[in-house]
Write a structure and sequence with these properties.
The chain is an alpha+beta fold. It has 1 helix and 2 strands. Strand 1 and strand 2 (25-27) form a beta hairpin. The relative contact order is 0.25.
Length: 67
């Protein structure tokens, strides 16, 4: 399924735990690491995944429903 995803590292947030039910649902577990690039620049003393990247992750997973 991931071979149809056009995003590549470090902007690919979908991993191999992707589960898709065609035209119904999609879900995945995103494995984050303290070393991820966005933690170094997004609130360094209180790191969190930026909302824009959370939405991008949902978009990547949601797009898989269609394929």
């Amino acid at each position: 399924m991931l071979e149809i995803q056009p995003n590549q590292e470090p902007f690919l947030f979908v991993n191999n735990s992707l589960k898709v039910e065609y035209l119904k649902s999609a879900s995945c577990i995103v494995h984050l690491s303290p070393d991820d690039w966005f933690f170094k620049c997004h609130w360094p003393k209180n790191p969190n995944m930026p909302a824009a990247l959370q939405i991008e992750t949902m978009t990547q997973v949601g797009g898989m429903i269609l394929f």
